[in-house]
């Protein structure tokens, strides 16, 4: 049995549609390879073995191209990074005592929130300004600004 060009077109569209239900973003490349192979079969007759080999090579090349070229180079996430917070100045809403956390309010959201729990080595009274000097877990370490 030799597959016709339209078989590959149907398989290609089916794989691309399956990508909607399985969002791994791999089936779309397999489907695109099948579509390209269907168009190639319109121009050149190929045996079934050559068709399968061509589809495998095209699929592999498209997936590798996606992983190497088009995928974002930055695989790190911003969760837990404190570069954005260090040095920022905010207003203490509650008193901060050693071994007791307070709360600091910023004018603009900082790392996703405008209010943060904060700690300090010295007593800081509410209503005063404080500068972020570090991030300790889910709290910001602050000093008087």
Task: Give me the secondary-structure topology.
Layout: H1 5-18, H2 27-43, H3 48-70, E1 89-94, E2 102-110, E3 113-119, E4 129-136, E5 139-144
Parallel strand pairs: 3-5
Antiparallel strand pairs: 1-2, 1-4, 2-3, 4-5
Helix pairs in contact: 1-2, 2-3
Task: Write a compact overview of the structure shown.
This protein has 145 residues and is of the alpha+beta class. 37% of the residues lie in helices and 25% in strands.
Core attributes:
37% helix, 145 residues, OB fold (Dihydrolipoamide Acetyltransferase, E2P), alpha+beta, 2 domains, rod-shaped, single chain, 3 helices, transmembrane
Descriptive account of the structure:
The protein has 145 residues and is α+β, with helices and mostly antiparallel strands. It folds into two domains: 66 residues, no CATH class; 56 residues, Nucleic acid-binding proteins (OB fold (Dihydrolipoamide Acetyltransferase, E2P)), CATH 2.40.50.140. Helix 1 runs antiparallel to helix 2 and helix 2 crosses helix 3. The N and C termini lie far apart (79 Å).
Strand-residue fraction?
15-25%
Strand order of the largest sheet: 1-2-3-5-4
Structural class: alpha+beta
Give the count of structural domains.
Answer: 2
Q: Main β-sheet, in a few words? A: 5 strands, mixed, barrel
* Number of helices in the DSSP assignment: 3
Radius of gyration: 29 Å
Task: State the end-to-end CA separation.
Answer: 79 Å
**Number of extended strands:** 5
Shape assignment: rod-shaped
Give the fraction of residues assigned to helices: 25-40%
Unreliable residue runs: none
- pLDDT averaged residue by residue: 88
SSE order, one letter for each helix or strand: HHHEEEEE
Transmembrane segments: 27-46, 52-70
Organism: Uliginosibacterium flavum
Protein name: NfeD family protein
InterPro entries: Membrane_assoc_protease, NA-bd_OB-fold
């Amino acid at each position: 049995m030799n597959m016709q060009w339209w078989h590959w077109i149907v398989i290609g569209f089916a794989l691309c549609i399956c990508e909607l239900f399985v969002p791994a973003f791999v089936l779309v490349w397999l489907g695109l390879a099948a579509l390209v192979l269907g168009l190639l079969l319109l121009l050149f007759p190929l045996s079934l073995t050559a068709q399968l080999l061509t589809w495998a090579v095209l699929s592999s090349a498209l997936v590798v191209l996606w992983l190497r070229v088009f995928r974002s180079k930055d695989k790190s996430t911003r969760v837990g990074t404190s570069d954005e917070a260090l040095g920022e100045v905010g207003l203490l809403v509650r008193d901060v005592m050693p071994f007791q956390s307070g709360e600091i309010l910023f004018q603009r959201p900082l790392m996703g929130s405008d209010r943060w729990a904060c700690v300090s080595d010295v007593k800081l009274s509410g209503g005063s300004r404080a500068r972020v000097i570090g991030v300790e877990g889910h709290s910001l370490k602050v000093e008087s600004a």
